[in-house]
Amino acid sequence: MKKSVLSFVIDQWSVVPPVETANLSGQTVLVVGANVGIGLEASKHFARMRPARLIIACRNEAKGKVALAEIEQETGYNGCELWIVDLANFASVAAFADKFEKEGGDLHILVMNAGIVQPDYQLTIDGWESVLQVNHLATSLLSLLLIPQLIAAGKKSSTPSRIVIMSSELHYWITPAKEVQASSKPLEMLSSQEWCIPKHMQSQYGESKLLNVLFVRALTDRLQSVTPLSAVAVNPGYCYSQLRRVWYETTTFSVSKIALAIQERLLAWTAEQGSRQLIFAAVGGRDNEENMKGGYVSLGRIVEVADFVLSDEGHKMQDIVWKETIDILSGVSDKIGQIVRDYLVVPDSPIN
Which InterPro entries does the record associate with it (predicted)? Predict the structure, then answer.
């Protein structure tokens, strides 16, 4: 599928479908990146569905406590818990997963909403370019580490568990450079200082959102059809969000800030409207679960992904990125290899 600027504008001017609802009694929901914006609004919607536990995972404890109070005040739900995790630190992610293994119990819905935009090249404490680590590597790490709890919940329930990973329609306009596609270690290349010149940093966020789609599809390829777990990528649409605050903070030319403000005024949805897409990806489409597996949600329905993702080149890169991701994350946590062996299968692919 190709997406034009006109189709993007039409989508943004479309009526946003109402929020999906479900009975979440007895279930545990985890929202990562929940203290502001879309994640916070999604958490409020989950709270209104009264799950047994709603865990909001945030990097900043003070902001998380404010979000916790806001959720309880607006929904009357008092089963929300605040846990701390920093996706820019692999050790924090691994510690979070260890804590969940001990204290979290079964997990029915995992929403990986956290993400960053960073116009300048910055390394995390782990030595990876920050956007690549937060949006792809750490997101994939926590998703994989929580697979045992997700599958356990799905086996005990009549409803498969869900992993929801925030992507973006920006992936439609990203075609990785030929040298990235040809590399046996594209993530290493995308993270290198040599690659991350200002021109390439402009598309780094979009690249990370493409990687999210590839990860969801690669994971789905490796889950047996009988496994009670579905992975879904979601496009929240173009929304008012603190994601773009870095541009307001760092842009020196007032005309650029004015242009961004006008663009948001003309096109942006509210964070609550964007959150409805996350909710649909988490609880919607239960009448056709097979259609949801590996799917890409936009405007409250499954839509086709970008042509590159569906191409032979896209399939090849998907498998290469999966292999590199697993190799990297296996060096972070010795649990990754065991989870891959115990819960996933090897698809019919020459890469594996």
Answer: NAD(P)-bd_dom_sf, SDR_fam
Residue 153 resides in a domain? yes
- Strand order in 296-298's β-sheet? 80-84, 53-58, 28-32, 109-112, 161-166, 229-234, 296-298, 301-302
Extract the runs of DSSP E, i.e. beta strands, from 204-264.
229-234
Q: Give the integer Cα–Cα distance in Å for 66 and 83.
A: 13
Select from 211, 274, 216, 210 the least CA-distant residue to 242. Answer: 274
Distance CA 34, CA 40 (A): 5
Among all residues, which ones are annotated catalytic?
168, 205, 209
Amino acid at the residue 318: Q
pTM of the model: 0.94
Domain CATH for 331? 3.40.50.720
Report CA 196 to chain centroid distance, whole Å: 22
CA pseudo-torsion sign 247, 253, 257, 259: negative
Number of domains in the chain: 1
Structural domain of 332:
25-237+272-343
